[in-house]
Queue: 2 jobs
Job 1
Amino acid sequence: MTGCMGCARQTVGLVAVSMTTLVPPSYAQVDPYEIMDRVDQLYRGESSHGTSTMEVVTENWDRQMTMELWSLGNDFSLVRIQAPAREAGTATLKADRDIYNYLPKVDRTIKIPASMMGGSWMGSHFTNDDLVQESRLVDDYNIDLSFDGDRDGTVVWEFTLIPKAEAAVVWGRIEYEVRQADYMPLGVRYYDEDGELARTMEFSDFVTLGGRTVPRLMMMRPADKPGEHTSMRYEDLEFDVEDLDESFFSLRTLQRRR
Amino acid sequence: MSQSPWARIGMRNLGRHPKRTLLTAMGLAVGFFASVVLVGWSQGLVNQMVENSTSLLGGQLEIHDAEFLPERGLYDTIGGRDGVDLDQLLTRATSDVRVVAAAPRVYAGGLVSSGNSTVAGMLMGVDPEGEVALSRFLDVLTAGRLPRPGQNELVVGTEMARQLETEIGGELVVVAPAADGSMGNDLFTLVGTYRTGLGEIDSAFAVLPVEDLQALVVLSAGRVHEIAVSTQDPWVAEEVAVAVTTAVDGDVLEAEVVPWTELNPALVEYARLASSMYGVILVIVFGLAMFGVANTMLMATYERRREFAVMLAVGTTPWGVVLSVLYEALALGLFALVLGVVMTAPVMIWWHNAPPDLTGLVGEIEMMGSVVSLTMQVEYDVNFAVMTAAALLATAVVAAFYPAVRASRVPPADILSGL
């Protein structure tokens, strides 16, 4: 879910790109940095509020959670579990680079240490790092257009992102696939430092939520665990939420149970 | 030897220059002392590393599900999802007389938080009383007491306590992914702290009763990840592993019994490397001593050229001269061996039973998953001592061979005529 909030912002950014760029550039005009920068910039400063359902399927168990979520730019987000009842009220707050978890059962808040940023968020296949990732793609990665054309009946761009030498990032390579017609993301493939595929993210079910076209369903699949996945489906989503400012993303708000 | 005239001549000759004989013998004796003590000390260090590595926390054997290692997955409990009859398994695991103790363990990765500080660590569920009999890390707590089952109590390493900025009686929030997919979390009270000297353990292991950890991560009572087993001697672990495997066979589906030698192969390799160096030590020490003995024997035979010339002139064969010198060298070697044993034995007995502690000079050394207190602890190795004695005698004889041959080739007429 944490990553999905980032994905949602990214999606929003990509949607905004499609709204402001009426005619997709030709291959010769494609500037990967410009596109990724605009994507990055566009979902910074955006605010959102919505509800979503996360389904986690593992080898050992399946579970579904309903969550309410808020975000402000790339620095602030809050996710609160509404169901199942056993975990209702459990919440995660991201404020700047810090992540806090509120545990209603014991009525305590804990700060997630940096060493756990790669750890799973609530048993899902998303990591805490997916939530706090503040890196800008254009700053941390060298970006090349690696494909431009028809793939499975859809005209897409594929951008390959290789981390810069000094960048403190997790992945060894990222491949973004973007639909040219409306700048919708179709998929992201994450590779580790050894060049092995680590996980994939797929976007689908493009609908209008909050007045914008977004992929409603996002599916994260770990490469090393076939059959396991975490899906994130937005039930409703609104953008540019009024009165949602930084003060909302506080420990006090985190500890509200509903 | 006493029946041979050459032997009598050789041995008697040692007494002609008692100081020189003593000094030369001392060279060999010190070589004997250095070799035996150095190897004994090395073996003491290796044994200490093995002992600490296996008895401090891990145990000499581990029984766990075949899929448990290397990832140590939460779901890979002994007996699978159904678990096992723990009492029966423990009874069988301790049926071999060489087994000292066995105790169940449950592991889970998690977070331990106090105030604004949170530490990611390993939650280790143990049977506190059984663990004291099995391992050493909880034997003497630096503060507090062992946790009691059902009371939500735990102990942590001193370094973790420092990072959490907490003390005995402090409240800790413990969070861990549970087996049902939920996020297990509960409040615990810190009742004790331990210190192993290994930073990776003292900063990362929170220890609580196995029942409490099972409840936290939603594992049923019969589901444990490991039965740790301790043996009387770490070096019999592989043999005991076979015996324990037979004992528990049929009880536990797809369980395996793994000795420490498989869990920590680097330590085994280190022990082998150390053993392989012992021969090198002998070669270096006695190689140096050999030149000293050769020099002494060369001087001694040079001084006795007239004697050898007379012997040859009255009909002694050159081989007889060689033998007399070699017997002298052998007698020197035996004398040196006696000196060496007299020098070495008290020191070995002393350092074996009450080794000087050098920890104050260099502190504790952490290496290969073990913490080593630098003491002069030595181990007895009769085989190596015998090998060293043989090397000493061989050195004395071999070193004398060239002087002996030269002595047998003196020209009698020239020497006796004063040329």
Job 2
Amino acid sequence: MIHRILVRKYIGQSLLLFLACGTTLFAFAWVRVWVVSLLDMGQFQTILEQFREFEKFAPIDFDALFTYPGRVGMTFDEPIVIFCTVIWCISRGSDVVSGELGRGTLEMTLAQPISRSSLLLSHATVSIAGLIGICLLVWGGVSVGVHFTSITETVEPATFRIPWVNIDIPITETSPSKRSLPLSDRVDVRTYAASTFHLFCFGVFLLGLASFFSSIDRYRWRTVGAVVSVYVLQLVMFGLGKAAESLQWLLSFTFFSCYKPQKMTSLVGEGGFAAPWGLSVPVPDCSLPPLAYPLILLGLGLLFYGLAWFCFRRRDLPAPL
Amino acid sequence: MKYSFFSLHDPNFAERGEATAHEDGIAAEENPKADLNSEISKDYMVVTTHNLTKRYAGFSALSDCCLNVAEGEIFGLLGPNGAGKTTLIRSLLGYLTPTSGGSTVCGFDPQLEGVSVRKQVAYLPGDARLPRHMRGSSVLRFFSEMHPFGDLERSRMIADQLELNQKRHVAFMSTGMRQKLALAVVLSLKTPLLILDEPTANLDPTIRAIVLDFVLEAKRAGRTVIFSSHVLSEIEQTCDRVAFLRQGQLALELSMGDLHQRHRVWGSALDNDVSAPENAGERVVVHRETTMSKSDAENSTSYRIDLAGDLADWLPWLQGLSLEQMRIEPLGLRAVYDSVHFGNENWMEGTKE
């Protein structure tokens, strides 16, 4: 079903975009981890404490961010990471039918003995493989950053705590010392496997949605417009649901509610590496088990791909304009 | 409504024409097309359509189209823009789902067995667009690998014959160069059926001639060709049969062999009332022309006489008419096209006075 020659063509078509997005994400993730090392944890805590009233907009409790894994894990919610992933997904997804129709190349391609299903599947294969690559590059950037970054910690002198009054009394008269250590001593990059998987599922959802719109349209600009409209609408619903208690029900209707990379990071901190992959125990403050959320995104993405296949197989292909 | 020109006017004419070509070896040598006609196998129809209809909201792109294209023939599609030629072709390839009716191509239903159909077909779209990020050579390689009948060496050879620079990126090619590239892709495929939608558009006369040679070569190889064009001379030069489409309807089907046996006689007669011979049936149609030139005398009437069949049979009768300023010309496709275009399918019929 997957056509080797078509796959090669799609790789050629998308290679430049992949290299651009992939390089950006890898470099950004690396630099983002390095920036974490620049800001002392104490200073970071001071800054964040001033925004306590906005904690409800944050994907996790602020307390979870007062750790190196938590701060590095914020990378997966950075606008640049989301932006590059969205660019890859919308540009590739919108290309499959309406893009080729708009360029007029679908006529010649489908004049060859290949089925429409084969064309869609070949395109999806390249797009999803590219998405996997992009997600792995984010994870790779984080890993490289963690391994090549050092942090400086302040070591307070040994103290003795007075029971009942809870006052710490220094045992020695030495002043606090600073010591440097690799970030990898504090952060295990395996923590972000689940976050990477969330990013991938988020991308599959968008790829499926864009492919579905593409399969029923003949203009790529309109496909992109439709997908971006849905994206913005869902984002607004997510924001409103977070902002107003009376609108919390909106959170059930936006796919952003299923994208929880930082939650997965904090789950690893609490329950170990296997914690985000469970399907039995619900996530604290959430109604579903941790693995259910990315699986919902993945399922919706595949559902949209199924709809795209159904519509593309049945539709008339207009002549090039 | 389908009109078969000879079935309408002279059902035995085509058979007689073919018989003549077979029996008269000299005639066949002098007219290579007559020889080609004789090779056409009428047993197997490569393309058949049955009441093929495609309606869109508000208009009908194709209505009740019934066509048969025999193996080994070059079948022309003629009609003005929007007549339904491309809709017909696209329906045959499975791009469009018919509203009603159906078709078979090489024995396969395009709706159910599109891949099997396209294995047997090399198709050149009317506006062939190719991946812009590829070079010409990469495009040739890509399509030769995509099709089971693909032949990279042959497509390169054709591209060279068409004087195409294969190193250039498609994005930087002119319209004519892109057409040549698409032609190199399509003409290299040795499929049983070749469908060409306006293949010579945007090409210079030399390359047009080369393309037409390739079409005739395909026929010599026993392949079937469906050829859509607005250039009537190309259709006359290559096709064995043509179908005229108008407003989505098959207005007329015509064998080119029949057309070559049609003549038009112009002349004026003084005090004579010209009428067709009684035994001629509909093979002779006399039109009294209403437009008079300044040189015409007061009592002279201009006549247009359309003749079907061997001209030699009608010469004694014409001589007896005593027409002045007589002019005999072969009836070209242009006359038929104009008649169909202006909605007069009964162009051979006239007042028999």
